[in-house]
Amino acid sequence: HHKAREEALKAIDFCGLTPVKDVLAKALPIAGRKRLEITRAMATKPDLLLLDETAAGLNPSELLDAIDLIQKIRASGTTIIIIEHIMHVIMTISDRIHAINFGQTIAEGTPKEVAANQAVIEAYLGTDYA
């Protein structure tokens, strides 16, 4: 029990939730709840973390905080697979991107390679990242 609590507190600190560690989850704003979900996963010390639409519903400031946390997790050695529709997040945090449109792979590669792919530009990016 003591070790589990210790590991949970380490994850809370790592993910930046120490100031609100005694707040009920339902009282946290959406960004805090999303961070809590990531914290719960990180408490298990995963080698691989799956994130699904982590940035959805976040304001610009919260997006930057989420990007910072994801980059911190990557830097800790955890591999991340993320499903995300906010291109700024994907282009900022990814080493490799696998772009899918209507169930079909349309591109795979580095952010720069994928951003230059005409099918990706048409499906997702417009011209902001090309």
List the helices and strands and how they pair.
Layout: H1 2-14, H2 30-42, E1 48-52, H3 60-75, E2 79-83, H4 87-93, E3 97-101, E4 104-109, H5 111-115, H6 118-125
Parallel strand pairs: 1-2
Antiparallel strand pairs: 3-4
Oligomeric assembly: single chain
Helix/strand structural class? alpha+beta
Summed over residues and divided by their number, the pLDDT gives a mean of 93
Just give the CATH class.
Alpha Beta
Count the strands? Answer: 4
Q: How many structural units, i.e. domains?
A: 1
CATH topology heading: Rossmann fold
Question: What integer value in Å does the Rg equal?
Answer: 16 Å
The CATH homologous superfamily corresponds to: P-loop containing nucleotide triphosphate hydrolases
Strand order of the largest sheet: 1-2
Strand % is: 15-25%
Name the poorly predicted regions: none
SSE succession: HHEHEHEEHH
Instruction: Label the CATH architecture.
Output: 3-Layer(aba) Sandwich
Helix content percent band = 40-55%
Main sheet makeup:
2 strands, parallel
Coarse morphology:
elongated
Distance between the termini: 52 Å
Tally of individual helices: 6
